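Weekly modeling sync, notes
Attendees: S.R. (lead), two postdocs, one rotation student

Agenda item 3: backlog of single-chain predictions. S.R. asked that every request posted to the team notebook include the full sequence so nobody has to chase files. The rotation student volunteered to paste the first one in as an example of the format we agreed on. Action items at the bottom.

Example entry:
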Amino acid sequence: MPELSFARLPEIDPARITAHMSDPRMAAHMPLLTGSWDAAATEAFVAAKEACWTRDGLGHWAFLADGDYCGWGGFQKEGAEWDFGLVLEPSSFGLGPAIARKALAFARADARIPFVTFLLPPTRRHLGALARLGARPEGEVAHEGARFLKFRLETPGQAAPPG
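Predicted structure, as returned to the notebook:
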């Protein structure tokens, strides 16, 4: 298993994010990913994710495996809820459970996050990993005009947020 770490998105070469997000396999399970993805889309994406850090003190990270970018995700405040997202490069799909466990350990240690939500497109059929994490289904919701399956995982904060 590679060493997993998290970095801020501006630390990643934008061309790497552009290549990742313009891979046609990404759109298969990302209903909000429409149209083409280019350098301008990456610039806007990174700026939007950094704005979440400024507004909420938390946001999305770049995920690194042995120091190499393998995807992005993390926590984004949606109203009163913290939604967790995980978007990996196809070559790193197998790292999803380990990255999720590491991120959810962060959530459990952060008093701001009493629970986490997951929004998955209905095209996702293999949901056993969420059940193994303890997430429970909450039905379907619409988000930005797309349908999603919503799950909730209790993550009672145990300590102050890591510095």
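Discussion: group reviewed the output briefly. DSSP finds five helices and seven strands in the chain.
Action items: rotation student to repeat for the remaining queue; S.R. to check formatting next week.
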